[in-house]
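Dear U.,

For the methods section draft, I wanted the exact inputs and outputs in one place so we can describe them consistently. I've listed the two proteins in the order they'll appear in the manuscript figures. Please don't edit the token lines directly; just add comments below if something needs changing.

First protein:
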Amino acid sequence: MKGATDPPIVSVVGFSGAGKTTLLEKLIHELADRGYRVGSIKHDVHGFEMDKPGKDSWRHKHAGASTTVLSSPHQIGMVMDVDHDHDPDELKKFFRNVDIILTEGYKQGDKPKLEVFRHGVHEEPLCRNDDRLIALISDTHVELGVPHFLLNDIKGIADFLISNFNLVPGVGHRERGHAGVPLNFEPCQMTG
């Protein structure tokens, strides 16, 4: 069950080359400039290597550590072996100080979706028949029965999210007790 302080999770989806990463980068910047704390999840079905070969943390991981945490005074990073592909609801426990979580990917997921669509890249929108689509962001008008934004209307998209999810800047981190204090991680288990 969704808790009172759980941030909304919105997935930005679309075909490869549509501009999802660029849109997310601009949208995160716009929301952050307005005082919102934004979390992001990049879904990669192909796997990834976050660390650099030869670095100490890479060596720890490749020696057999199931979880490796990189820690500095300003950032924390973690690489953990998992037994399945985790959905945003399973990952939200890592976001205790945000007002909204934006994901890139999870096109098959059950979260509200913003689709980025470029007519020159693909003929039809990915989410034409998806009832979780809440807005289309594109370079051409396509009638799907949801609000439509041009690719460069970042302020309009931000306004839409703020209104649609009743966002208030900083509510997430104040309600969770993290207004500028270090984040305290609690042990968790990532199992299926």
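Second protein (the one for the lower panel):
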Amino acid sequence: MPFIALTNNQTSLSPKQLMVICFGNAVAYFDFLIYLFMADIISATFFPTHENPVLAKLQAFSLFSAGYLTRPIGALLIGRYADVSGRKPALLMSLLCIAITTLITASLPTYAQVGMLAPILFFVARLFQGMAFGAHTPLGWVYIAEHVPKSNLATYLSFVTASFMFGQLGANLLFEALTTTYTQEQLIDSGWRIPFVWGAMLSFVAVMLWNVLDETPIFSCQQVAKKYVPKLAEIGFNFRRFNAIFLALVLTFIISSLSMVIALLLPELILMRFSVDESMLSFSNNLGLLFLMIGCVFFGLIADKSSTGKALMMGSFALIIQALAFYYHLENSAGSFILLMYAILGFCAGIMSLGSVILVQLFPTEVRVIAVGLTYNCTYAVIGTALPFGLAYATNMISFSPALYLTFVGLVSFIIGLYIFRLPKFRDLDASLKL
């Protein structure tokens, strides 16, 4: 049987606690993504203006990538703390670190004020923010999973995954409002601080709401039983059993690919090869995010009503068809139905919420956060760093490269769904990380 032990029809999670977790996730993702939307402004603010602008932008994106690369460190350190001391204090630690680093970023001096010290300070703040965010994502999933019965696990976790997309939608809308309200010069002068200030304030609100949460029943039972907590060296020994680890890496590949391509990269990739009205494309992207959130909840409900494997196979097949149809439409209709096509594509990408449902069931309580966090963030670090450049290069060569990539992701997801469907109790997976 799976490691998630609550099998009755009762949940110890209140609606208020679910809302606090979802709000914290949305704010954390908002804070993490602000920099991506402000990359051009940050480049002009924190790097010498006399340098090659392309080089400056590459430097700016390298700072953004640094946030991805330090996420595994946060997953290791805060994840270990969560497995030893509890999910609730670890959530406070990650939220507080995100809030402080975002506030520090909003207060940093520019290159014009302190020279090369400015990008160095920004780099350090970004490193710590990435570490905190790396722990926060798996913590949110695990916290919810350890509060609810398995019969409702997919539904609850789908709301958590959807909350990340809500944070991105908020970042999209704020950036559009800023670029409409302020000129480029005003944004470079001081306007770039506004989204960071907003992010910091919302993060501190999330910190203040932390008291609503309580420790998870599963972790509390483990503490009462005084169950042995393995040392890091022993965790490494168990990680040599690759069954659960490999599946976790593949699931993260699916989650990261769908969230990055459809939610972040697709508008720029479309503009590289197709003539589509930018304002319409921006609105389509926001609509796609909204339907992605709806899709997350839809597939979560389907998974609880039937099975996770069936829901994943069904959604994967729909994703493949829609990805190909989306680019066929771009090639032959010049984006005439971009709103409808983007909305359907976003809805199909909602299958990514099922990844977390499987992830949290792969590892036992005593190493759940660190195991989920490390596998998730290590994979995301690679995908988050390499995919934007790789897919942009491929799109320059072949216009429908994003459709081919999404088709590949859909095929991988379908295979995983079939595998899970044939192992509905995860009985083989449970043997992969025995302590």
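Candidate sentences for the figure legend, describing the second protein: The chain has two domains: 13-228, 230-427. Confidence is low (pLDDT under 50) at residues 427-435.

Thanks,
Y.
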